[in-house]
Design goal:
- The protein has 151 residues and is mainly α.
- The chain is built from six helices and two strands, in the order H-H-H-H-E-E-H-H.
């Protein structure tokens, strides 16, 4: 809900303050959500790889590195750790033997599903404490934030 008059143009300082407040609130909420996880010892980067494989299917190491904007050696360390823990598998490609596909195991899928369940439950509990009007504002803000993120 926009509460500023249409003729009011915010100053640079006002926009900077709003941007800072939004950034801090977004990071704080993200930190609280990240704390809700199925495996306490798993890093955020490791979980992100599992979640990306769940959402987007099998990837090569290079594709995962590019998706997560990290170097191939860094992604290789992450994948090695997840593979050793039994959360994913490396399998040779059926058509190109030089390619290795990385896929989730059932155990990796279970970690993703349980972590998402815990995060959704935490957020649902937090939302239940808000008034209907506040939840409507949050729903509007979520739509706006998706649009900003998609720029």
């Amino acid at each position: 809900m926009d509460t500023t008059p249409a003729s009011s143009t915010p100053t640079h300082e006002e926009l900077a303050a709003e941007a800072s407040d939004l950034r801090m609130a977004t990071f704080r909420l993200a930190r609280r959500l990240r704390a809700q996880r199925a495996v306490d010892s798993m890093s955020d980067g490791q979980f992100t790889v599992l979640a990306a494989l769940r959402i987007n299917g099998s990837h090569t190491l290079g594709e995962l590195a590019e998706r997560e904007r990290v170097t191939a050696p860094s992604m290789n360390r992450t994948v090695n750790c997840l593979e050793e823990s039994g959360y994913l598998l490396r399998t040779p490609d059926d058509t190109d033997r030089r390619k290795v596909n990385i896929t989730l195991t059932d155990e990796g899928l279970a970690v993703v599903q349980e972590t998402v369940r815990r995060r959704d439950a935490w957020l649902e509990e937090a939302l239940a404490e808000l008034s209907p009007g506040q939840r409507a504002v949050i729903a509007d803000a979520a739509a706006i934030m998706r649009g900003v993120a998609d720029r």
